[in-house]
Amino acid sequence: MHLFAPGHSGCPGCGPSNALIQVCDTLGKDIIIVNATGCMEITSSQYPQTAWRVPYIHSLFQNAPAVASGVSRALKAQGNDHTKVVVIAGDGSTYDIGFGSLSGMLERGDDVLYVCYDNQLYANTGVQKSGATPYGASTTTTMVGSVHKGKENERKPIVEIVAAHGIKYAASASIAYYADLQMKLRKAMAIKGSTFIAIDAPCCLGAGFDGGITMKVAKLSVQSRLWYLFEIENGKYKLNFNPSNPKPVREYLEMQKRFKHLDEKQFEHIQNQANLTYNEMLEKSGLAPKIEATAAAEKAQI
Fold first, then answer.
1. What is the DSSP string of the chain?
2. Class of 15-261 per CATH?
3. Tens digits of per-residue pLDDT, 181-229?
């Protein structure tokens, strides 16, 4: 029996809903969920129904980490050192609206596992861009016209930003690589203090693809090196999956309507950025770079 129950109102093929099934089933019943406002709150807790088979608190968009910190401190005061408090929040709450609250929780080192289901946009409020939205993506606030061609800057490196707070564990995972996600959830669950996992969970509605290929889209994101599976444990990087024959980014991008407007210059920019950040990740993980960064990619970093 899934601890995140079927029958919620998520879209068919919903990536974040799949992430929550994997998260809850892996962590088990001895958890308390604090869920920020967003898609997964709206689709799972419409009164009088709920999809949650574990203790659940709906918080505001901006304060889920603060609420989780309070719950964690209350458990500690009661002598409960086994129940794990888990924040579930989308990228809008994590990267943007609730980042100040998240930063405070990390600075204090509260015993909370923070899980971000990252679908790269504000799906719940109309598909606006977030700090997780990648370069070139079309949203309702990064529209495509004669002058502007989608989002014009890069997404935030949220895992590295979180790790910079000095916490013991931060990681990146994907719904398409379940064993890797399970390993990271269990590792984070066992650590006392603040831990963080960002899960790539594509949104079929917001990105514009058929819900039947959600897992394929998620897998291609990793295989094209636009999303990495890695950990930062006590400041040390570890790349968990190093594609031996990476896919071109075009294959991933052309599957989604939000990128249908891209021209050759934009495709080249995205590929160059993927090559550059891939080499940086290899170097951080103690591995040798595999792809020579082009002059265009180097210039893009200036």
1. --SB-TT--PPTT-HHHHHHHHHHHHH-SSEEEEE-SSHHHHTT--TT---BSS-EEE--TTTHHHHHHHHHHHHHHTT--SPEEEEEEEHIIIIIITHHHHHHHHHHT-SEEEEEEE-SSBTTTTSB--TTPPTT---SSS-BSSS-BS--SPPP-HHHHHHTT--SEEEEEETT-HHHHHHHHHHHHHSSS-EEEEEE---HHHHT--GGGHHHHHHHHHHTTSS--EEEETTEEEES---SSPPPHHHHHTTSGGGTT--HHHHHHHHHHHHHHHHHHHHHTT----SPPPHHHHHHT-
2. alpha beta
3. 999 999 999 999 999 999 999 999 999 999 999 999 999 999 999 999 9
Query: Is 150 in contact with 219 (CB distance < 8 Å)?
Result: no
Distance CA 99, CA 120 (A): 15
pTM over 0.90: yes
Distance in angstroms (rounded) separating the CA atoms of residues 202 and 186: 23
Paired strand residues for 8: none
Domain limits, the chain = 15-261
Sign of the CA dihedral with 120 first, then 26, 247, and 299 last: positive
* Assigned token pair, 95: 């990267």
